[in-house]
Amino acid sequence: MSQVTPETDASIKFRSPTIADGAEMWRVVTDSGVLDPNSCYMYLLLCKDFADTCVVAEHEGRVVGFVTGYRPPTRPDAIFLWQVGVDAAMRGCGLGKRLLAAFLQSSGAAGAARLETTISPSNEASKALFASVARSIGADMTVATGFTEADFPADGNHEAEELYLIGPLDPTRTEQLSP
Ligand SMILES: CC(C)(COP(=O)(O)OP(=O)(O)OC[C@H]1O[C@@H](n2cnc3c(N)ncnc32)[C@H](O)[C@@H]1OP(=O)(O)O)[C@@H](O)C(=O)NCCC(=O)NCCS
């Protein structure tokens, strides 16, 4: 797999996933060593039923990054981003930000007033990514309690997940982001 350097590299395609992408999304997760490992079945379900709020980045026929999310049924004005992952070899080249741009511009995010996600306090890359997107679209970013350490199994050694709220989302600004 060749390295991508320019932030606008046109060889990367952003699209909604199909079931055929589920196993590759799962691979990006397990390879990351950072994202919570879930069963591959979870990604197959997301590809089947939530494809309009998920994005994959494809490079040379391989999935090199993805975003998963959904519209929370009790907060329809929000778009929740569950996981974003970029293959280690491709990090730091703007791909994460381009994935978020494609996510915010996806059909499933249409009309959302607020982007929600959760981030562990130690995940500096993720915090920097969302702060960068908030800056680019002129939105506020606030942090609230999401899930506490105590919400996770006692022996699981899982950090808290703080809730990040980014908004208000202005479609004119989000459309200007470049996937
Ligand atoms: C988080 C992640 C998706 C970022 O993807 P990426 O392609 O490397 O990010 P980008 O190159 O688009 O960078 C976006 C911004 O974050 C900053 N950033 C990226 N990695 C960083 C790091 N390790 N430390 C500090 N800042 C970082 C960049 O400088 C950039 O900021 P700028 O726009 O102000 O210049 C990637 O590091 C990853 O896959 N990590 C493992 C999985 C994970 O932690 N996912 C998030 C939790 S769901």
Q: What this model shows, in words?
A:
The chain is α+β, with helices and mostly antiparallel strands. It has one domain (12-174): Gcn5-related N-acetyltransferase (GNAT) (Aminopeptidase). Helix content is 27%, strand content 27%. It has 5 helices and 7 strands; from the N terminus they run E-H-H-E-E-E-H-E-H-E-E-H. It has helices at 22-32, 40-49, 95-104, 124-136, 171-174, and strands at residues 12-15, 55-59, 62-70, 78-86, 114-119, 140-147, 161-167. The chain has a 7-stranded mixed beta sheet with strand order 1-2-3-4-5-7-6. Helix 3 (95-104) links the parallel strand 4 and strand 5. Helix 1 packs across helix 2 and helix 3 crosses helix 4 (124-136). The longest helix has 13 residues, at 124-136. The mean pLDDT is 95. It binds coenzyme A (COA). Residues 32, 34-35, 83-86, 91-97, 123-126, 128-129, 132 line the site of coenzyme A.
In terms of topology, how is this protein built?
Layout: E1 12-15, H1 22-32, H2 40-49, E2 55-59, E3 62-70, E4 78-86, H3 95-104, E5 114-119, H4 124-136, E6 140-147, E7 161-167, H5 171-174
Parallel strand pairs: 4-5
Antiparallel strand pairs: 1-2, 2-3, 3-4, 5-7, 6-7
